[in-house]
Amino acid sequence: MKRPSTLTAYAFLYLVFLYLPVLFLPLFSFNSGTIVAFPIKGWTLDWYRKLGEQDTLIQALWNSLGVGTVVAILSTALGLFAARAFVRYRFRGQRAAEGLVMLPLVIPGIIVASSMLVLFLFLGLKPSLLTVVLGHTFLALPFSVSILKSAFDDFDASLEEASYDLGVGVFETFRRVTLPVVSPGIVASMLVTFTVSFDEFVLAFFLSGNQPTLPVYIWSQIRFPAKLPNVLALGSILLLTSVLLLVLAEYFRRRSSTSEVR
Amino acid sequence: MNFRSEASRGYSLSAPATAYVGFLVAAPLVILIAYSFWTQTYVTLDKTPTLKNYRDALADPLVRHLVLRSIWIAGAVTAVTVALAYPIAYFIAVKARKKTIWLLLITIPFWSSYLLRVFAWKLILGFNGVMNSALLALGLISEPLDFLLYNEFAVVLTLAHAWAPFAILPIYVSLQKIDPSLLEAATDLGNSPFQRFMRVTLPLTIPGVIAACMIIFIPTVGDYVTPALVGGSDGKMIANLIQVQFGAANNWPLGATLSLIAMLSVGFVAIVFVITATQFGRRIR
Description:
The complex is a heterodimer. By secondary structure, chain A is mostly helical. Helices cover 76% and strands 0% of the residues of chain A. Chain A has eleven helices and no strands. In chain A, helix 3 packs parallel to helix 6 and helix 7 (157-165) packs antiparallel against helix 8. Chain A is globular and about 70 Å long. Chain B is 76% helix and 2% strand. Chain B has a single domain (60-283), classed as MetI-like (MetI-like fold), CATH 1.10.3720.10. A two-stranded antiparallel ribbon of chain B has the order 1-2. Chain B has twelve helices and two strands. Chain B is mainly α.
């Protein structure tokens, strides 16, 4: 058969197309020359060493870590209740509600960003990390809901019924039966929503005021050719962090979907 | 123990999330609409309702040009991305042995920072960039190519790369749903693999293809980062103009109007596309 082999070859080429462009960032971050072009002049770790000396970068990093953590907690909490409602109960308008929660995925970023800026100022909220948190929670919610929905999908409802039959209350049952089973899903959701917030640029660009997050800081550096090696080193660390967080999230997501077997 | 009815539990548990999203979709929209009827001179906001912003925006050839270009670029990106993604989705759904590994490999790049992926293309396509220097070093060209960066081509290429995983997943899901017995029946009735694909597989995956198109088309029309970094002056899109109104030009009413015009145009094109594509899907069935 000839067909499958062409298709397989195409699939591998496609992976090269997906990965190759991104891999140039780490490659040139070790280049001792300041111009991003072949041939590479020599190898150095200087650009990484110099990252720690930059106060504005460190401040932006803390801003991003703080925002990401709060967003992960808020969106996962909101998502947890919503996902449970969507999986466990049937109610009128359910499809509309599920669709509404997914809406942030498909609205163009510039429209979300500009309209939220207008809204927050209207409500008297000055652009700050708080408004970035509110915006990112909105963007992250579809991710937490869909991850937690699949966590609840794999959850056997008869476990809860058994607990009720044994006279355990609703909250106690949730804490002792439901939560432990879906907890890998919760961890996966927190990791993913953290990553969504940590990498997000356009909303933070509009809403962060004078408290830049890391992507906003990178944006301010990109325009200066002299800062390029700096951005490359920082960018490479960020890429690695995102990939590690995602692989970890995937590990927990897998655990949640196999937990019913155990 | 007091069990409330199923429905009321469903409502109360999902209410915080739906209320949050609902509020942040509806409230800004209302204020955006209000702003679009107001005017601003320097820093003073005049709240007398007027259609001036709409008249100005629609009369401005630049606005029309940027809206049309945004739609055309997003359309091109959608077509390229979906065409490239379909075979991959088919490969993963039908041929691949380790489906989950492939799905993971496809989605990982999407989780890296969008800003950095776009930035990578700027470095690759630049006049003194990775591509030109590599081609020069290999002796394939004698002077750098100047048509790689700062044009529509660069924008389409970068966006097609950035949105690739989004197209694969919906098509993959629709391929997975196909009942294998339908394919067997087609073969038993004497269809060649190609005929079988055209008559059974493709029509059944049209909903997935439509979903993929929408997931890519709608956000890319309003993309800001890619045209700003690799578009140059020939590749600017409507989002860049909107950002200017909210930033340097400080004309929020006009910015609000442009946002609404962009949203309505996207919505219109999307609805027309979905209706046509659904009709097409029925016809070939």
